[in-house]
Design goal:
CATH architecture of the largest domain: Sandwich
Helix content: under 10%
Strand content: over 45%
Number of strands: 33
Strand order of the largest sheet: 10-17-16-12-14
Shape: rod-shaped
Oligomer: single chain
Amino acid sequence: MFSGLRTGFNYAGLTLILGGFLLIAIPTEAGILDASWTAPTINADGSPITDLASYRVYYGTSGAPCPGGTFLQTASTTPNPGPGQIVSVRFTGLSPTLLYNVAVTAVDTSGTQSACSTPASAVARIAFAASPTGTVNFGSVSVGSFKDQVFTVSNTVGGTVSGTVSTSAPFSIVSGGTLNLVGLGATQAVTVRFTPTTSATASVNVSFAAGGDISTRLVTGTGAGGDTTLPTIAITTPTSGSTYSTPTSSLALGGTASDNVGVTQVTWANSRGGSGTATGTTSWTASGIVLQSGANVLTVTAKDAVGNTRTASMTVTLDASLPTVAITTPTAGSTYSTPTSSLALGGTASDNVGVTQVTWANSRGGSGTASGTTSWTATGIALQTGANVLTVTAKDAAGNTTKAALTVTLVDPFTFTDDPLVARNTPIKTVHVTQVRAAINSVRVARGLTAFAWTDPTLTPGSTPVKVVHLTELRTALNQAYQAAGRTAPTYTDPTVVARLTVMKASHLSELRAAVRLLQ
């Protein structure tokens, strides 16, 4: 154990560090005190020290600090110090305005403490200096703009002083936020930026923390004027309308946004749950939006640099239910036969939300849109001879569709002898002419015309010769029926026929048969 401690005590001036409360009028600082002494080597009885464990460094601002009061304990690096070994310790968090008295004792491994050294006194100091030292006023800065001020931090104690600089909005550290000051007098620039977002005065502290010390500087600035113009935003995809229906549970939105200064962000939110940030600003997209069954109000918000916002919304209905459709006219069955080449369909359709359109299509050609939805009709459907599969499709707002079909067979109302006529093989007979006359009169009457007045109204087989006038009258009578139907007259082989020169051929009658069938 120790019977007496031989120690020298060296001290150094303390240094201030900035610290304190936010928005105070003057900076507050905490100081440091570096103390050093020569380690003891001999016990009071003259024997070498072999069991040194630690030191207790007492400090205070009134009277002798040792052996009572506050102390800082530091371990000895060796149980048997050698001659001239220097021990150092740093006190932090001290007041730079007070004089501190410091004394040290040695403690052995059994916990026995030596007598106190002679006290030494010093005023605390800080490890660095920051300038400007007073309040820094950034002045008036337009909202949406910014202004920078530079602080200079210097090393006042030597060695390496490391730390950080921080502040709070609407101020920020632009550069120099990490301090590393190597050597006495080393300096570093710290740039602080004021970026006002509102027309108001803001005051915050810039905090410098390094070497165990803290120092603050009050900064203040006023936002002026500013951008009060709201941005604009529009939804254009999947529609520019206010409502949309879809059978798909995932949706992509797209649109545009603008601002007198600039749009900084576009976000979206679903009234049924979910939100996110769109990609892009002036032209933006938001994909993968999850829809819930029924109505989903999707709201998109454009935001500018000063926080002005504007919204646009669309109500999207998730509808996966199929509509229904039925054909009731001319029959509710699946098949129907008619000798008439023009047909009208009718029926009904329904949907849980609403039918938006009913269309029809013929497998033999032709399509269109019916009139009406829940009760619909489709007129003027042109049929081809034989089977015509007529398909009716009901569609709702979400694009869901359901089909119904009816097979309509167009029965040829005209029966012709020797059908077809074979050129150079089938002789032309009076019955061929008589049958075409009857067919033409049928389509004429159907279109409001009178039966044609034929030359030789009664043709007698084997007696009445087939004449060119008979062919001319057939063409004229059929052309008039086409005109009454609003259709273009057929074209004919040998358009100009001459009596006693032109002979009626199989091709002439075949053309007339085909043309009259097209008009039935």
